[in-house]
């Protein structure tokens, strides 16, 4: 077998040498006008094309060498006829006496093509004669190249007029090219039967190498001047489709359908979709029909995009706005019906599509627009009238023809989607062998066509989704349904509306979207849920009704609660299972973060409806297990915002207090669940305090007190880490310090409890910090410009409003001093002296604060004593003889404090005191503070 190519190469070399020699002879004879001898040399040269021992590539190389040589002969013949040396009619007869048929036909075509270029030549008869004579070569490869030569030589001389005489017309040219195409295709198909059956793959490869010879004929047809839509529909397309279907060869059918899509104009395709797609349904079972239909859809979609770009920008904007308005109206109408009507939402049921849609045979006459709008086919007269008027009326037709409106490049009288839908459904019915992969791929292309060309026609999208659902159920037991390719196609099908519609709420108007989504595997549902939430967040889609909240969260339920088909475990210690969807806390945190961000887009103008939105969201989230750690806080914070909105509108809402209390109880309930079910004490504590803060603003003493009690319960039961305890008690102190609603007893109980917890912290530095911070609870101050009246607060538990005297602003300087002095005692008991000094500096800041606020019990003498203590201790922490363990301890309040930092802190405090003494010259309390010695000790120049 290895010697065969080598032998073929040797034969090719010999043939090329003969051609080279005969070309030289032919040129010499032509230069001396010895035409007969030149023809003999040409015939000898052409005899080399009789071989059947070369591969297609080698035969093509030989053919090109011969082709180049024959151009010299063609040029000579044209000049000889013009100069009167030889008449082409005589030469045309003469060359037909050549001995062998292959040289004879090549010479006949060479002379005949030149003869066709002569004015008044009987072109019609020459074409017919050459076509008939070419039938004499039936060897597939020799015949293909002969007819390719015939097509190439005559392409520039084909008649395109309307003359019925011997010079021929466009009809004759179309017939000539079509006949040559049909014969070449037959030869090409027969090529597969050459050689041994063992070489079948080799023959298929050779056939694919020769396919361009056949496709060139279709290029010739598409480039003929004068070919209009009527001719294409009536003659060209039916002839091509008949040959393609009848050849029953997979390679030929796939290639030729692809060529038809590529070479003919977009307008021709728009008005002849029906015949083309009908023929597609009749192709061989092994043909990749999916690819053919998708290629056509993609070409027309690209055409629509180009046309849309070329349209007037203002007109395009107007059309887009009108489409958006129609879409909004359809969404509103569909959503109002979807719960009750189900699949019958649309005015045109999907079941009636087969009988509803049809394709116009050509651009319709004025009367045809109405019938097309009703989904009916135009009459036979309507089909013929526009094309017959081309030849009969000329310009008159152009002036009378109506201007067809376009939307995104597609004429309104061309029902592009309906035609594709009808034909694709019929194709699937006629081809039960089509796999679910091919079906879903076709549906994806239809979906892309629908959302790009008809964005306001929701019924189109829903028809596709409904059909996909039916096919999934039909292929339920097929392994192909679960193949990666099928899964990807279905994901693309469901993703297209998400990416195309600006508002995700449009999906809720599609009755079959959610059911189809539920049929997908876990990974697909999860990916699509990500896309849905991403779209909502990107477009900031406001979700205003409980039904919409239900709909959106139902679409995203794969992210909200555990799924039966996933391997993600639930909370409460369910063991982790292995699998591709194994539990990943970081990944869950990211996903639930998206969901939580979406909650903030649940907004309604009506406060009552806003509460319904949050309650609806809560009902979905409560089944999420561990996920509520991330979703409940978003619901709670939105509920707290709602309370403020009620408070702001208290003049307009008579029962705002009861409604606000209900919302706060809702917050309390959700926070309690968050604390008990997922053990999130830090978050629960903050949310209880946040709710207590807004409850305080609204004036609900008992409810506020209860919320503080809950916060203390969380602190006592679940927060054990010393650092976390300090942070928590700091939050409690800060919130209580701003409380205004409490009576004296309740406020005293709470602040005493907070101070006690601060004093019981494990670490001494933490104790000292908490205690001196607790002093702020005993010294409340009214805000600047605020008029304080000790009005009674309203309790929430009694039917008759009980009234208690408010403690705000609570000011007890003795208790303040007690806290500050206790913090100093605790600081003094610290082991590391550097920690003690730092705590002294912090306490000094607090003393100065209260001195500035004129707290009676905080006297300058206490500050002077503390400054003296710090001054005497500062040298010890800066001494190089201090043991290394005392120089840089693990830190105060979990930070690392160096002697330099503490010294700088003390210096800045002294400078502050000096500035206050200077600015408050008339304030005796500041003047009594003595820092002269400290200035000298620290080396500060006054």
Automatic annotation (TrEMBL):
It is a peripheral membrane protein. InterPro entries: Vps35, Vps35_C. This is Vacuolar protein sorting-associated protein 35. PANTHER family: VACUOLAR PROTEIN SORTING-ASSOCIATED PROTEIN 35 (PTHR11099:SF0), VACUOLAR SORTING PROTEIN 35 (PTHR11099). Keywords: Membrane, Protein transport, Transport. One of its GO terms (biological process) is intracellular protein transport. Belongs to the VPS35 family. Residues 307-336 have a biased composition (Basic and acidic residues). Residues 307-401, 784-809 are annotated as: Disordered. Gene3D superfamilies: Vacuolar protein sorting-associated protein 35, helical subcomplex Vps35-C. Plays a role in vesicular protein sorting. It is found in: Membrane. It comes from Schizopora paradoxa. GO terms for cellular component: cytosol; late endosome; retromer, cargo-selective complex. The keyword Ribonucleoprotein does not apply.
């Amino acid at each position: 077998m290895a010697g065969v190519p080598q032998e073929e190469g040797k034969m090719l070399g010999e043939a090329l040498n003969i051609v080279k020699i005969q070309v030289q002879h032919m040129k010499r004879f032509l230069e001396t006008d010895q035409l007969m001898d030149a023809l003999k040399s040409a015939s000898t040269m052409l005899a080399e094309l009789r071989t059947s021992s070369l591969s297609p590539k080698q035969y093509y190389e030989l053919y090109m060498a011969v082709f180049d040589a024959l151009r010299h002969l063609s040029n000579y013949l044209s000049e000889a006829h013009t100069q009167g040396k030889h008449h082409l009619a005589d030469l045309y007869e003469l060359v037909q006496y050549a001995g062998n048929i292959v040289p004879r036909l090549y010479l006949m075509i060479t002379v005949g093509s030149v003869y066709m270029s002569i004015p008044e030549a009987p072109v019609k008869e020459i074409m017919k004669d050459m076509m008939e004579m070419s039938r004499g070569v039936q060897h597939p490869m020799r015949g293909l190249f002969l007819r390719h030569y015939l097509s190439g030589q005559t392409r520039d001389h084909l008649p395109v007029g309307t003359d019925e005489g011997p010079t021929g017309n466009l009809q004759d040219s179309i017939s000539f090219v079509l006949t040559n195409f049909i014969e070449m295709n037959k030869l090409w198909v027969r090529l597969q039967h050459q050689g041994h059956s063992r070489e079948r793959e080799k023959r298929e490869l050779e056939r694919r190498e020769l396919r361009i010879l056949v496709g060139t004929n279709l290029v010739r047809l598409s480039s003929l001047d004068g070919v209009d839509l009527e001719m294409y529909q009536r003659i060209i397309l039916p002839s091509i489709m008949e040959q393609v279907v009848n050849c029953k060869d997979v390679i030929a059918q796939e290639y030729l359908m692809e060529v038809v899509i590529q070479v003919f104009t977009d307008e021709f395709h728009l008005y002849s979709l029906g015949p083309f797609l009908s023929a597609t349904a009749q192709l061989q079972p092994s043909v990749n029909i999916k690819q053919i239909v998708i290629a056509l859809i993609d070409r027309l979609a690209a055409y629509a995009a180009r046309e849309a770009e070329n349209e007037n920008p203002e007109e395009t904007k107007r059309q887009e706005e009108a489409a958006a308005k129609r879409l909004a109206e359809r969404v509103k109408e569909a959503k109002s019906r979807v719960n009750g009507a189900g699949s019958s939402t649309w005015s045109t049921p999907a079941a009636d599509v087969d009988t509803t849609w049809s394709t116009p045979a050509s651009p319709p006459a004025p009367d045809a627009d109405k019938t097309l709008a009703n989904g009916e086919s135009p009459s036979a007269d309507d089909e013929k009238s526009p094309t017959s008027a081309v030849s009969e009326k000329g310009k008159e037709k152009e002036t009378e023809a109506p201007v067809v409106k376009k939307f995104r490049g597609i004429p309104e009288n061309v029902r592009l989607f309906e035609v594709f839908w009808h034909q694709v459904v019929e194709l699937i019915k006629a081809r039960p062998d089509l796999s679910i992969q091919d079906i879903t791929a076709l549906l994806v292309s239809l979906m892309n066509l629908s959302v790009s060309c008809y964005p306001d026609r929701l019924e189109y999208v829903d028809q596709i989704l409904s059909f996909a659902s039916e096919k999934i159920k039909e292929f339920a037991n097929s392994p192909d349904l679960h193949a990666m390719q099928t899964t990807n196609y279905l994901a693309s099908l469901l993703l297209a509306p998400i990416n195309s519609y600006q508002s995700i709420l449009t999906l809720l108007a599609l009755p079959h979207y959610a059911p189809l989504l539920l049929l997908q595997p876990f990974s697909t549902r999860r990916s699509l849920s990500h896309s849905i939430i991403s779209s909502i967040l990107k477009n900031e889609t406001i979700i205003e009704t409980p039904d919409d909240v239900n709909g959106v969260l139902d679409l995203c339920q794969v992210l909200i609660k555990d799924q039966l088909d996933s391997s993600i475990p639930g909370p409460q210690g369910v063991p982790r299972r292995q699998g591709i969807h194994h539990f990943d806390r970081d990944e869950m945190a990211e996903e639930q973060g998206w969901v939580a961000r979406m909650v903030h887009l649940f907004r309604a103008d009506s406060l009552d409806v806003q509460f319904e939105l949050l309650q609806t969201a809560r009902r979905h989230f409560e089944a999420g297990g561990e996920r509520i750690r991330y979703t409940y806080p978003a619901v709670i914070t939105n509920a707290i915002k709602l309370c403020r909105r009620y408070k702001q509108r208290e003049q307009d809402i008579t029962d705002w207090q009861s409604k606000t209390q209900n919302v706060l109880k809702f917050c309390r309930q959700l926070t309690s669940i968050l604390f008990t079910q997922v053990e999130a004490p830090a978050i629960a504590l903050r949310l209880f305090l946040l709710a207590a803060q807004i409850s305080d603003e609204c004036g609900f003493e008992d409810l506020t007190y209860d919320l503080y009690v809950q916060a203390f319960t969380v602190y006592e039961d679940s927060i054990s880490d010393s650092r976390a305890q300090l942070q928590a008690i700091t939050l409690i102190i800060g919130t209580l310090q701003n409380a205004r609603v409490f009576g004296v007893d309740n406020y005293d109980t709470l602040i005493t409890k907070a101070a006690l917890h601060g004093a019981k912290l494990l670490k001494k530095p933490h104790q000292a910090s908490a205690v001196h911070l607790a002093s702020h609870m005993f010294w409340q101050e009214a805000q600047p410009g605020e008029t304080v009246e000790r009005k009674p607060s309203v309790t929430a538990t009694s039917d008759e409003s009980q009234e208690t005297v408010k403690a705000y602003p609570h000011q007890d300087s003795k208790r303040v001093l007690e806290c500050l002095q206790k913090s100093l005692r605790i600081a003094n008991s610290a082991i590391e002296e550097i920690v003690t000094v730092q705590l002294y500096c912090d306490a000094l800041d607090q003393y100065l604060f209260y001195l500035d606020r004129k707290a009676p019990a905080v006297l300058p003498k206490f500050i002077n004593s503390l400054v003296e203590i710090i001054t005497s201790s500062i040298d010890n922490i800066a001494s190089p003889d201090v043991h290394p363990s005392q120089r840089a301890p693990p830190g105060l309040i979990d930070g690392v404090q160096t002697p330099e930092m503490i010294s700088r802190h003390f210096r800045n405090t002294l400078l502050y005191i000096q500035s206050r003494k200077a600015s408050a010259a008339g304030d005796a309390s500041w003047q009594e503070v003595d820092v002269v010695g400290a200035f000298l000790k620290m080396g500060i120049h006054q």
